[in-house]
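Re: the request from the purification team.
They wanted to know what the chain is likely to look like in 3D before they choose a buffer screen. I agreed to run a prediction and write the result into the notebook, where they can find it.
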Amino acid sequence: MRPAFVIVASTVPVLALALPDDTTLSRLLVGTWHDYRHDAQYRADGTWILDPPDEGDNTRGKWRIEHGRLITTWRFSGESSDSTAVDEISELTQKTFKFRTISQEGPGRPEGQALPNKIFTLTRVTTKQ
């Protein structure tokens, strides 16, 4: 009996931290999110737009969620291929979006640039009615 209790006790915290499935995460992401510099709007059609625009023309692109990770793509002006970022979602609710960038590839990424080793926190922009 004791080994079964230990197994259950050790898995309950993991289950409590589990994210919803990708479809639910996608529904939660749709909307406008604010960080300290920009508002990012994730649309239901799988496109995103950044306001105000960032340097390098990466102000719009496509997004999808796979295995609890947000994958965004964009194309810099004058480039023939897309750039991609993969963000590991740690929390996504109606009000809060927390993630950590785990990879970024493509043209326009400076050689040897290190990814930030931190959790980014965005808050949902709500409109007054």
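For the purification team: The longest strand covers residues 83-92.
Please add any questions underneath this entry.
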